[in-house]
Amino acid sequence: MGSLEPSTPGRGVNLRLRAGNLLLLSMGVVMGLGLLEVSARIALARRPVVTVGEQEVYTQWDALLGWRNRPKTSVRYTRREYSTDVAINSLGFRDAERGPGKAAGFGRVLALGDSFVEGFTVELDQSMTRRAEALSLSQGCRLDVVNAGVHAYSTDQEALWFVRDAEPLAPDVVVVFTYYNDILNNIRGNYWGMPKPITKVVDGQIVPVNLPLPEPARTAESPGVRSIAPRAIEGSALKGLVLERMLMGAPGLYSWLARAGLWKPDAPDGIPDELRAYKTRGELSEFDQAWDNTRAIVRALGSTVRARHAKPVLVHVPARFEVSERDW
């Protein structure tokens, strides 16, 4: 008798089951991606409307400093990262209302700086000076901490303001906050189209050498706060969100996948001049001059502070890339 081949009636059934499972899996992936795409479009639609022009509302021309805050003005910032209310007090600062004199039994700290001190990206009670004041009072130290920060100021403007306007405030301590972009701007007479003073230190005095500053030409009143229309969604909103988060949170991975051809590599703007402050001395003559002038300004300001019976303190505000290799 010949041998008989074993029958395999279940093989076809298994193939059909696998095919069915694969089809269900594919449908599940497609539906999941579809839901994620819809969610991404909803998320984009719910992003706050971004505005610009806030600083135009509370900035006015100053013949010595170039610009200063307009007293008794207020505005609301709206950004993707924050929404804050900014109110300028009668002294021209984003701070609690204060008289020029100190309250009895209180010491006074005066903080000089730019937007990091002004703190328009957080609500007033979360600003650095208000937090420092609250912390001091909670520890039984009776201090008021005056916020004299003005957006876009460099050290030279802060020093000129102190010499001209700060004496009635009678501070006990003056804290000067510096940022890396101050270095180059301390020898430049223009900041993003706004005229600013150029200073030299002569016999220990900080002297502006490019006065009178021209008042910016205005053909009409400031348009004030205005909205920016959101960009139209091109292609997949989900892909756009993923790439956006990857670029900000994992730029190394983004670049590696871009080199693999999955998408176009990021093309950032050229390195800003201010970042060249990190060049070794002797490589860029302009920065040699900028560092020398900054040092002279800080020394002269320190002498003026001491002459007014206060203590000067210099604080460096680090950018994120100065303390994080990933951010760099």
Largest beta sheet: strand ordering = 7-6-8-14
Contiguous runs where pLDDT drops below 50 for at least 5 residues: none
Distance between the termini: 82 Å
Based on secondary structure, the structural category is alpha/beta
The radius of gyration is: 29 Å
Largest sheet: 4 strands, parallel
- The succession of helices and strands, N to C, reads HEHEEEEEHHEHEHEEEEEHHHEH
Overall form: elongated
Tally of strands:
14
Helix amount, in percent? 25-40%
Mean pLDDT: 89
Count every helix, treating DSSP H or I runs of 4 or more residues as helices. Answer: 10
Q: Strand portion, in percent?
A: 15-25%
Structural summary, described in words:
- This protein is α/β, with parallel strands linked by helices.
- 37% of the residues lie in helices and 18% in strands.
- It contains ten helices and 14 strands.
- Strands 7-6-8-14 form a four-stranded parallel β-sheet, with helices on both faces.
- A hairpin with a 3-residue loop joins strand 2 (59-62) and strand 3.
- Helix 7 (237-249) packs across helix 8.
